[in-house]
Amino acid sequence: MIKFLLKVFLVCLIITSCSSETDIITESETPINVNLNRQQTGSSANDLLSASAFKKMIVEVAYIEGFKPTETALNNFKNFINDRTFKPKV
User: Fold this and answer.
1) Alpha-carbon span 29 to 21, nearest angstrom
2) What is the pLDDT of residue 26?
3) From residue 6, how far is each of 35, 46, 61, 74 by CA, in Å?
4) In a 3-state reduction of DSSP, which class is residue 76?
5) What is the structure's pLDDT at 6?
6) What is the pLDDT of residue 77?
7) What span, in angstroms and rounded, lies between the C-alpha atoms of 55 and 87?
C-alpha cells in the first residue's frame, strides 16, 4: 500500500512539475524570441564577428581577488578580439 501511494505521489509530482515552454518570453516590454538562442553551432558566428547586427562588443573579465590579470594580458586579449572581429568598437 505504501509503494502504491509513493508511486501515485511521484506521478502527481512529475505531472505538476512539468511546464510548457513558449518560443517568446513576454515578461518585459520587449518580447524575447528564445529560438534565436537555440541555433546550431556557428550559425550566429556572422552576427557575433561582423558589425552588421551588433556594432560593438562588450567583454567583462571576471577574476578572483588577488589574481587580477595584468594590463599586458588584457591588452593582448583586446588585440586578439580586434584582429578577429570586424567591430568598430571593442
Assistant:
1) 19
2) 60
3) 38, 52, 48, 56
4) helix
5) 86
6) 93
7) 6
Give the span between the Cα atoms of 1 and 57, in whole angstroms.
61
Q: How far is residue 25's CA from residue 48's CA, in Å, rounded to a whole number?
A: 22
- The residue type at 27: E
φ/ψ region of 50 (left if φ > 0, alpha if ψ in -120 to 50, else beta) reads beta
Phi, psi (degrees; rounded to nearest 5) at 8: -65, -45
CB atoms within 10 A of CB 82: 13
As averages over each run of 10 residues, the pLDDT of the chain (90 residues) reads 84 69 62 72 80 84 94 94 82
Q: E strands of the chain, at which residues? A: 24-25, 32-33
**Which amino acid, residue 87?**
K
Q: Which residue has the cell 512539468?
A: 18
Among the listed residues 60, 20, 62, 22, the one whose alpha carbon sits nearest the alpha carbon of residue 38 = 22
Copy the grid coordinates of residue 13. 509530482
